[in-house]
Design brief:
6-stranded mixed sheet; alpha/beta; 17 helices; 27% helix; hydrolase; Metallo-depent_PP-like; Purple Acid Phosphatase, chain A, domain 2; Calcineurin-like_PHP; EC 3.1.-.-
Length: 513
C-alpha cells in the first residue's frame, strides 16, 4: 500500500493549517497507541536529578572537549579489522524506492508510542526506515533498546538504519554499535590534555556493559524476521542507488565530524549523482546556520553540501524536536532543502520562539507545530506549573493572534479579525515569542528561550494529545525526490489518515562536472 492510499480520505482536508481539529486539539476518539504501551511506563522527566546526572557527558564534552572523534576512529578501525569495506556504502539496484525518516525517538513513553500507528500507516510499502539522531534517551544504553527500539517498531516489516545523536554517544556509542553494526567494543575516551584533564576523566560517565542475551532475545521476539534484519556498515554510511545517494554522518556530541569521516564524506559526495544528507545535527535550524565543524580543518560540512560538484539537493537533521524546512537558494541558482526532522517521539522543542525568518523568506519557511499551537501548548503547561491557568492559558486562537501581533506574520492558520488581548500579548512576551523586524523589545521571559536548550523544552514534556510529533516519508524516482511530513497527534482520528503538514518535490538531475 502506498502512502497516498493510506492517507487519501483526509489528505486534502485535514491538517493543522486548516483547522484546530486537524492539529489535534479536539480528539473524537482516543488513540490506539495506548494499547501498545508496556504495562508499566515511567515517563522520562528531565526534572529528575538522576536523569541529568546520567546525561552529564554532554556538559563534560562541551567544557573539556568532545572525545567522540577519537572514540569513533577506534570504532571504525575495529570495523575495518572485522572486514567491513572502508566505503561504508550499502547498494540498492532499484532506481525507485521509498523510506521513512524520523528523528529523536527513544523516550519509551506515550509520546514515542503515539507515533507508531500513524507511522505504520503512512510508511506502508517503504523499503527501509532511518532514525536520524537520538535513538535512545537519555543515555543511549544497550539495556534500553528493548523498550525503546525493538518493541515500539516490532511491526515495521523492513530494515531500520540509524544515525547516532548526542544522547547515543553518552555511553561511548557502545549500545548503538552493538544493535546496528553487530559490534561490541568498549571504547574508552582518550585522556584529556591539560591540567583539567583529570577533572574531565573523573566526571565522564563510562559506558555500561552489553547484555548479549537480552539483545538477542529482544531481536528474536520483536524484530526477528529476515526482512527486518539490516546491519549497517558503521556509525556513518551511504546508501547508493541509481537515482539518489543517501549519505548519513555521525556528528558526535557537539555537532562536528572528525577528519577521517570528512575525507570519507568528500569521497562519497563526489560526482554528479543527486545526494541527500542525513545528519545528527541540522545545518539550518531556528533561523540559524549551524554548518558543522570539521576537526582540525576550519572547513564545515555545509561547505561540502553546498559545493556544486557534489549536487546535494536536501540535508535533513534531527536533534531539535520539531519539523522545520528552509529552501535555501544558492548564488549559482540551485536550491537545497534544509530540513529538521526531530519529532519522532521525544519531548517537543518550542517553535513559537523561532523569529521571523531571515535564512529564507518567511513565506517559504515551514514548521510543525505551527508557532501559535506551540505557544498555546506551552501556555497550558506554564499555567499548570504556576497554578495560574487564568493568567497563562491561551486558546490556539488567542495564541495565534499573539504570534501574528509580535512577529508581524501570517502564522499558518488564520482566524478572521482576531485581535490579541493584553493578557495574550503579555503571555507571548513572557514565553519568548520574539518581536518581528518592526520592533525590538526585551522583557522578562520564563525558561523557554532565555535558558540553554537543555533547560528549555526538556522541562516541558507532556504525555497527552496533542503531541505534535512528526515523521517523513521519502519517495524517490528517476526524476524526482518527494518528501512529505506527516503529523502524529496522538488522536485516534488521525491514526488511519495522518495529516500531511508539508510536502516538497525536488527534481533530480545529474549535474555535469
Amino acid at each position: 500500500m502506498s502512502a497516498d492510499e493510506a492517507v487519501a480520505p483526509q489528505r486534502e482536508l485535514v491538517n493543522s493549517r486548516t483547522s484546530e481539529a486537524g492539529a489535534g486539539w479536539a480528539c473524537q476518539r482516543p488513540g490506539t497507541f495506548n494499547e501498545l504501551l508496556p504495562e508499566r511506563v515511567r515517563p522520562l522527566s528531565w526534572w529528575r536529578p538522576t536523569v541529568l546526572w546520567r546525561s552529564r557527558n554532554d556538559v563534560v564534552a562541551r567544557l573539556f572537549g568532545d572525545p567522540s572523534d577519537e572514540i569513533r576512529r577506534r570504532c571504525v578501525t575495529a570495523l575495518g579489522e572485522r572486514g567491513t569495506p572502508a566505503a561504508f556504502t550499502m547498494h540498492r539496484s532499484a532506481p525507485e524506492f521509498s523510506f521513512a525518516l524520523l528523528g529523536d525517538t527513544g523516550e519509551g513513553d506515550r509520546s514515542q508510542y503515539a507515533v507508531v500507528p500513524p507511522l505504520l500507516r503512512a510508511a506502508a510499502g517503504t523499503d527501509f526506515m532511518v532514525i536520524a539522531s537520538d535513538v535512545i534517551y537519555p543515555t543511549g544504553e544497550a539495556a534500553d533498546y528493548t523498550a525503546k527500539f525493538f518493541r515500539p517498531y516490532k511491526d515495521y516489516p523492513a530494515p531500520i538504519y540509524a544515525i547516532p545523536g548526542n544522547h547515543d554517544w553518552y555511553d561511548g556509542l557502545r549500545g548503538f554499535l552493538r544493535v546496528f553494526c553487530d559490534l561490541d567494543l568498549d571504547c574508552e575516551p582518550p585522556p584529556w590534555r591539560g591540567p583539567l584533564g583529570l577533572v574531565a576523566r573523573l566526571f565522564w560517565r563510562m559506558p555500561g556493559k552489553v547484555d548479549e542475551a537480552e539483545i538477542a532475545d529482544a531481536r528474536a521476539r520483536y524484530r526477528g524476521t529476515a526482512a527486518q534484519r539490516g546491519v549497517q556498515p558503521g556509525p556513518y554510511w551511504a546508501i547508493d542507488t541509481p537515482s539518489l545517494r543517501v549519505v548519513g554522518i555521525d556528528t558526535g556530541i557537539t555537532g562536528g565530524i572528525d577528519r577521517d569521516q570528512a575525507a570519507w564524506l568528500r569521497e562519497v559526495s563526489a560526482g554528479p549523482k543527486p545526494k541527500m544528507l542525513i545528519t545528527g545535527k541540522p545545518l539550518r535550524v531556528d533561523d540559524d546556520r549551524r554548518p558543522g565543524a570539521i576537526e582540525g580543518e576550519g572547513a564545515t560540512v555545509d561547505e561540502i553540501v553546498q559545493d556544486p560538484r557534489h549536487n546535494y539537493v536536501a540535508a535533513v537533521g534531527g536533534d531539535i524536536h520539531n519539523y522545520q524546512r528552509y529552501p535555501v537558494r544558492l548564488v549559482d541558482g540551485r536550491t537545497i532543502q534544509y530540513i529538521v526532522s526531530g519529532g519522532g517521539g521525544a519531548f517537543m522543542h518550542a517553535t513559537h520562539v523561532i523569529p521571523k525568518t531571515r535564512v529564507v523568506e518567511e513565506d517559504a519557511f515551514r514548521c510543525y507545530p505551527l508557532r501559535g499551537d506551540s505557544l498555546s501548548r506551552y501556555s497550558q503547561l506554564y499555567g499548570r506549573w504556576t497554578r495560574l491557568p487564568k493568567l497563562f492559558e491561551l486558546t490556539p486562537e488567542e495564541a495565534t493572534a499573539a504570534v501574528e501581533y509580535r512577529l508581524g506574520i501570517s502564522p499558518g492558520r488564520g482566524y478572521d479579525g482576531v485581535e490579541p488581548s493584553r493578557r495574550a500579548r503579555f503571555v507571548a512576551s513572557v514565553l519568548g515569542v520574539p518581536w518581528g523586524q518592526r520592533r525590538r523589545h526585551r522583557f522578562l521571559r520564563l525558561p523557554v528561550r532565555a535558558l540553554p536548550q537543555r533547560f528549555r523544552s526538556e522541562l516541558a514534556d507532556w504525555d497527552r494529545p496533542p503531541f505534535f510529533k512528526s515523521f517523513l516519508r521519502v519517495e524517490v524516482t528517476e526524476s524526482e525526490l518527494r518528501i512529505r511530513c506527516f503529523a502524529a497527534t496522538g488522536c485516534g482520528d488521525h491514526e488511519e489518515s495522518p495529516p500531511i503538514e508539508d510536502e516538497v518535490v525536488i527534481p533530480l538531475q545529474q549535474k555535469r562536472n
